[in-house]
Design a protein that fits this description.
There is one protein chain. By secondary structure, the protein is an alpha+beta fold. The chain folds into three domains: 137 residues, ATPase, nucleotide binding domain (Nucleotidyltransferase, domain 5, 2-Layer Sandwich); 90 residues, 2-Layer Sandwich (Nucleotidyltransferase, domain 5), CATH 3.30.420.40; 69 residues, ATPase, substrate binding domain, subdomain 4 (Actin, Chain A, domain 4, Alpha-Beta Complex), CATH 3.90.640. It is built from 13 helices and 18 strands. A five-stranded mixed beta sheet has the order 3-2-1-9-10, sandwiched between helices. The protein is flat.
Amino acid sequence: MLMFKFLQGKFSHDIGIDLGTCNTLVYIKGKGIVVKESSVVAINVKSKQILAIGDNANRMVGRTPSHIIAIKPLVDGVVSDFEVTEQMLKYFIDKVHKKTPVLSPRPRVVIGIPYGVTEVERRAVEEAATSAGARQVFLIEEPMAAAIGARLPVQEAAGNMIVDIGGGTTEVAVMSLGGIVASRSLRIAGNEMTEDIVTYARDHFNLLLGERTAEKIKALVGSAVPLKEKKKIKMRGRDLVTGLPKEIVVTDEQIRAALSRSVVKIVDAIKTTIEETPPELLADIMEKGIVLAGGGALLKGLDKLITKETGTKVYIADDPLTCVARGTGIVLEDIDNLKDVLLPPEYQQISQ
């Protein structure tokens, strides 16, 4: 039995997964992040056959005939289609595990999930990963994983604050002694900001924008505060009145106005979380600052806006897009010492 456990640890490529609404990142123990692909699956509706997963499927978004749909099986970081999520997880697990020996054991998997999800939603992720080929499944809350990935000392008796703005959710959390003390989880994040631009184009210019076009505009000229140099960008889509192609030029100021709907709600969530934080921990946060992670952290000037609104220093984590994935990997590398940061019921169950 001891020999079997030794071989499991020796040859199993344990993996950490940031199962995001927009992107899935996979970390292999001892190797780092080896996969970063879109959380998209293309399906033939007629035959129910899965045609593509990941980046290949993402290239089909908005370009498929009627019998092919490209879907995101996770909505706001939560499993919305169990079978498709299972197939997507199987694809990613197989992709990183295929080079191991034929008789190698199945991997242990650490998966980041949004804070505050229901027991049913947690179980859906766990069962999908098990069905996809995981030997054991550990779940960790995304703000905790992001904080660990950003190298915050979450196990110390001191306050650490992280704001993880992903594709589907924004997680705001204050941590101390390996646990979350105060938090907010919003279903408003990068996707909602993209939708804000689509809505703005429709309401102000009768222009129907594609999701990928709006995403590109957000990345190029989107900002939370006025920019030093004013920017302009062409916005191309379909005129809702004539049905013909239409192009207009918009400024960074107009895009900032569009994004403000979501940005204001994120800032309010941060302020509310600060209000609920015990004074001693708040003193630590004022000294160390707030850390931003996730793709939304890259919105120009967001750190400056949060600093202005909260009166607290704000730092953007190194490579914010990979913080959750790196956090799951760090837990994998030292799971005995970091087991307390995992969700307790799942850890106790799999350890029996």
